[in-house]
Amino acid sequence: MTERFGWIWVVPRPGEYYDFESFLDPIAPDLSWVGAEHMQVMQSDEILCRANWKTIVEGGIEAYHFKVAHADTIGPHFLDNLSTYQMFGPHMRSVLARSSLPRLRELPQDEWDIRADTNILYSLFPIDQLLLTEDHLAWVHLAPLSAGETLIRLSTVAPRDGMPGREAHWARNHRITCTTLTEDFVIAEGVQAGISSGANDVLTFGRYEGALHSFAQQVAAALNAA
């Protein structure tokens, strides 16, 4: 167990693969930039999703579903099927472009603010995701219960110095997060039902699913190391 970047990190069975220095260092500059040590949990909810945890992770690291799955929530605020990702060791940083991003063509680069025109999703291998928005972050923690069930904890984490008098703002954002991600979880349950039917022996990642393939490679590497 160790404390770094405002989080307590716990590994049940530490070993060479989970040496904290080698495990966190690839993503350390970004985690330091997030500044979680200056934040605290404002609200938290738990949701039981009848899907494998890996399916839930995969649903968050592609953007082609946004306009359909989130048509009545966040879909209109994002560009269609536009995202990018980069690996940092086993961890991933995804950048999801908001509909305001094209305005940057008219602005000098020193006025660009990545948090104003994108959402940044950090997938911290294997089971935590941090969704960084303009003024707070949403923390998604997955607790696998079985091959087909995952307990999900959704938390809204906000800067301590920006909290007084903003309780209603954080509560509203927490509701938006829970509503939006529940739409994803419903899809994950449908995917899980299809997998559990045994109808397909093989599933192939598509052209827009490079991030999913990279995540699957990290899962395979961790299993081989174990």
UniProtKB/TrEMBL annotation:
Matching InterPro entries: Ring_hydroxy_dOase_asu_C_dom, Rng_hydr_dOase-A
Pfam families to which the protein is assigned, alphabetical: Ring_hydroxyl_A
Co-factor(s): Fe cation
Signal sequence extent: none
Domain Aromatic-ring-hydroxylating dioxygenase alpha subunit C-terminal, residue spans: 39-223
UniProt name for this protein: Aromatic-ring-hydroxylating dioxygenase alpha subunit C-terminal domain-containing protein
Organism: Ruegeria marisflavi
